[in-house]
Every structure is written in C-alpha cells, then in structure tokens.
Specification:
This protein is of the alpha/beta class. The chain contains 1 helix and 12 strands. A 6-stranded mixed sheet has the order 1-4-12-11-7-8, with no helix packed on it. A 4-stranded mixed sheet has the order 3-2-5-10, with no helix packed on it. The chain has a two-stranded antiparallel ribbon with strand order 6-9. A hairpin with a 7-residue loop joins β11 and β12.
Length: about 170
C-alpha cells in the first residue's frame, strides 16, 4: 500500500516538494507551465536587439541634441580630440562645396577621423591620417556631398563619433 507523504492529504505526484519555484499542487493533466518570466524577458530582449539592429541598417541616425558646429563660408570646420572625445558630436555643412575638416589631436593617444555614408560604415567617404599628439594636426577634404546625414568616427576609438549633416541650402544665421 502506497503511503501519502504530503501532510495535507494529497499524494506526492513525483514533483519536488521543497524546491524553489516548483508547483507541487499542479495537476498532472495540466502540462502548461505556471509562469516563465525568464523566457518572456529573453523574448523582450530579443525584440529590442532586433529593433536596434534594423535601425542601424537604415543608416538614418538622428543628430545629437544641441546645436551642430557649422562650417564657415568656405565649408571648413575645426575638430579636436581630447580625453577620448571629439570637440563636437555634430557638424553642419552646406551642399555643393567640398567639406574641409581641420583635425587636431590634443592628447598622446592616436586618433583619426573617418566619414561614412551612415553608421553601418559600409561606404567610406574619406579618412584622415592617424595623428598622435599632443597638438598634432591633419586635414581631411571631402568631395561635395548630397544633402543628408552622414556619420564620422575615430577608427581607433569607435566610441568617438558623431553626425555630419549636409544641408540642401545655406544654414540660417
């Protein structure tokens, strides 16, 4: 004769009686799990990663908050690197002219500037020489670009990056 191990008169159905997260009162005919929060979290994380990956494919990144540094009348801008960051995260240029970036590295770590069609970095428009400072400089001249938003970064320290916005008309003063 089988002995009932449960103290409340129910039979132990082979399920662990003292484990964490085990439902000892589930009927064997009910094969559905009670809850699966780790699976739901994994699904949510997967969806978020998919959305982030797809947004990078399109290549349209929004310019960072705050004002862009505008090029001068000759479509020239000065960009510096210091403390592993660029002096600006957004450069604004005008359409129809070559874009000139005077780049100065103010620290001992090597840096450069590369400009791409978008953040996927599949199509490079131009890249400066690598310069090691302090106060070493180089100049990058890009051919005229169509209006739109482009991406720039230091190829050595990719967390150093930003947007190059080319306007279809001259920017407002």
């Amino acid at each position: 004769m089988a002995r009932d191990c449960a103290t409340d008169g129910r039979r132990d159905r082979g399920q662990q009686s003292r484990g964490q997260g085990v439902d000892v009162h589930r009927h064997p005919a009910d094969q559905r799990p009670v809850t699966q929060p780790p699976q739901r979290a994994g699904l949510f994380l997967g969806l978020v990663l998919l959305l982030v990956a797809c947004s990078g494919i399109a290549g349209s990144t929004k310019p960072p908050a705050g004002a862009c540094v505008r090029t001068d009348a000759s479509n020239t801008v000065t960009l510096t690197a210091n403390n592993l960051q660029f002096s600006t995260a957004c450069i604004e240029a005008v359409v129809g002219k070559s874009i000139v970036i005077h780049f100065t590295n103010q620290e001992a770590a090597p840096h450069d500037v590369a400009v791409y069609k978008n953040s996927s970095k599949k199509q490079q428009i131009g890249r400066s020489d690598i310069v090691t400072g302090p106060n070493a400089s180089t100049t990058l001249t890009l051919p005229p670009q169509l209006p739109g938003q482009y991406y720039f970064e230091c190829t050595i320290h990719t967390a150093m990056n930003g947007s190059l916005v080319v306007r279809g008309d001259a920017p407002a003063p």
